Amino acid sequence: MAIQEFRPELISRRGELIAWGSALLVGGAWFVLGKSAGHASLLVPLLTIPLLIAAFSISLGNWMDRHTVLRLDAEGVRFSNGLRHVRLKWDQIQQVRVLPAPWGKKVQVFGEQVYFGFYTLGEVKAQGRVLGRTGIAEGEFALQRILESAHLHEVHTLSPDQEQEGYYYVRG
Description:
By secondary structure, the protein is α+β, with helices and mostly antiparallel strands.
């Protein structure tokens, strides 16, 4: 089995720049109003704080995407995203869940004590035009390879009464 590495599609950083610019603009207004008028309306900090949280969250997500690697080899699977590092041999994989997501599918791979997840390719479209791609372009292939190499088979389709739709795979 050849070693294969998969990385997610990288999205434009425009949204991140807009979020930070908005947070800095409103934060700057908060500072100027506080210095010149002596106080600022309560709405200014109520707007600044969520903008800062959003900007930080977007930056963290982009950073994690740029550091994400899914590696499959003869021994098993490795997943790393800068914060989470998981190594599972094929026989350590207990189950895989495949859930629908807004773009692509969310794949969750569970070992006995660790797990990781990744998204298959999804396209963001508006008015019939593709605006961006997200997830791992070869994610479907990686999923099939994980299922085959770990000797997993579909148990059943998750149903809405289980609070999730999707597919559930186990060993055996």
